[in-house]
Design brief:
It is built from 17 helices and no strands. By secondary structure, the chain is mainly α. It is globular, with a radius of gyration of 21 Å.
Length: 433
């Protein structure tokens, strides 16, 4: 029996509201770090921006551990095979641990060169390398959290990730305040606080899989290989997304120290809003995977239409909130007059783009839930190619931060077009486990 519109809204909200809390915890980690570090002498804030861009790119490349696991587990649950769903979740955890260890080994010696690629020099580069290398120790835990969250989302449990995220966020805030402001460890203290908080969260997920789901934790090499190969399309998609953000940070860094500080704060706000909007996309992943596993194409279509409405509406609300908070945000980050002026201008762009972002993130989540990774990879490459001429024009013409963010706006519109056209078709509606 098809769901009524009211029942469908309840289903979306049941998944999206807890997912919202869990999703905003991660950018709140960074936002909290930014607020605390902003009270340190320059160039600590700029170093945080450069190092966290590299770190976010590395972890972002592995988001398939959450998204791919959510889609795979949801399909198995929809098809009625809970045992196989748990098995695929365990495979994702082993893959996360292996990838995390590999990232530490590869990236540690490359840290100085990576921050230099973003234009950091001198003391800015030294502090960025320190923050990055300490933070690398927490990468395996971050990836285990991604995989564990994906398992529970696939089972349509978004409340538990919320509780874990809130606990780790509170712990992160307390540790950062103690290490940075209390003990005077500077930027390194901020990195250690986040590492310890992420380790706590990873331990909770592992214990939960052992106790609640009685999961057999022996590695299954065939399953791990399958989980890795299934995520290749999502890796390509994410590489394209991260490339856009890294290029923007590199261009802002070369504009000057005040510009990279304003850009760093604006990016933190953008990421916070993006994760908030992504809550509906998470619901989309779980609902789409479950319905396609059960063979219910009509429900996927109806739910997608409804979630697009929710995404656009939430984007409008968030845009208005940004404009309302705009006079107060520079003071929150203890921004100097020049930085405050740059940031105030950028916030207009951030606000205007929120409705577009709301629809883009919903469609992205629906297609991920359908396992349409190959198309998402191709679309990511197309939209990145649309972005490159725009950002090159900013560099050649000597444009400022507003022009740089205008190029990011063009990129978002390109994503809206490619994802919207795909969603209107039917090639992605593949049913069964």
């Amino acid at each position: 029996m098809p769901l009524t519109p009211r029942a469908r809204d309840r289903q979306i909200l049941r998944l999206a509201v807890p997912a919202f809390g869990a999703l905003v915890a991660e950018p709140l980690f960074l936002l909290t770090d930014t607020v605390i570090v902003s009270h340190l002498p320059a160039p600590a804030l700029g170093a945080l921006g450069v190092a966290s861009t590299v770190l976010s790119a590395l972890v972002g490349l592995c988001v398939f551990l959450a998204y791919g696991t959510t889609a795979a587990v949801a399909r198995q649950i929809g098809a009625g095979d809970t045992r196989q769903a748990v098995r695929q979740g365990v495979d994702g955890l082993w893959l996360a641990a292996g990838v995390g260890a590999a990232i530490i080994v590869v990236v540690w010696p490359l840290a100085p060169y990576l921050v230099q690629l973003l234009g950091a020099e001198g003391e800015l580069a030294r502090q960025a390398v320190t923050y990055l290398r300490i933070s690398l120790l927490g990468v395996p835990s971050m990836l285990l959290v991604l995989a564990g969250t994906g398992v529970l989302r696939g089972m349509q449990d978004t409340l538990t990730p919320l509780l874990v995220s809130v606990g780790s966020f509170v712990l992160n805030a307390l540790l950062n305040a103690v290490f940075v402001l209390g003990l005077g460890w500077g930027l390194a203290g901020s990195a250690w606080g986040t590492v310890l908080a992420q380790t706590f969260a990873a331990g909770v997920y592992l214990a939960m899989m052992l106790i609640r789901h009685r999961a057999p934790f022996r590695p299954d090499l065939a399953g791990i290989r399958s989980a890795g190969s299934a995520g290749i399309g999502l890796v390509v998609r994410t590489v394209c997304l991260q490339a856009v953000l890294i290029i923007a940070t590199a261009v802002a860094t070369r504009m000057g120290e005040r510009q990279i500080e304003a850009h760093t704060i604006a990016i933190r706000i953008w990421i916070l809003l993006a994760f908030a909007l992504d809550a509906i996309a998470i619901a989309g992943q779980a609902i789409t995977g479950h319905a396609l596993g059960a063979g219910d194409v009509a429900e996927v279509r109806a739910a997608t239409r409804r979630m697009v409405v929710w995404g656009a509406g939430c984007g409008v609300v968030l845009g208005l909130l940004v404009l309302a908070a705009r006079p107060f945000l520079p003071g929150l980050f203890d921004a100097e007059a020049v930085v405050a002026g740059e940031l105030s201008a950028l916030l207009w762009v951030v606000a205007v783009l929120q409705p577009v972002a709301g629809v883009v993130f919903v469609l992205d989540g629906v297609l991920i839930g359908a396992g349409d990774q190959a198309y998402l990879a191709r679309a990511g490459m197309w939209t990145t190619l649309a972005y490159l001429p725009a950002v090159l024009t900013v560099v050649v013409a000597g444009g400022g931060l507003v022009a740089l963010w205008g190029a990011l706006g063009l990129w978002m519109v390109a994503r809206l077009v490619t994802l919207g056209l795909r969603a209107r078709g039917g090639n992605w509606l593949v049913t069964g486990a």
